[in-house]
Amino acid sequence: MNNYEIVECLKCDNRFISYDHQDEHIVCKHCDNQDRMETIFLTQDEFNQCDCEQCEQIKKEVNK
Predict the structure, then answer these.
(1) Digit-coded pLDDT (tens) for 38-51
(2) Which residue ranges make up each domain of the chain?
């Protein structure tokens, strides 16, 4: 599987998977955020401990 990070956009408050091969100019998949200062990259522990709906959906996708 490819390397990935879990990204949280502070502008639109969405989380998504960012794979290592994606275009680096894309900051958020959900909105027009182009400012990396408005994004958070979750650690693996933070992601594993989170039980929000978005993280649970991401975990399902990752575990396919």
Answers:
(1) 989 899 899 999 99
(2) 4-62
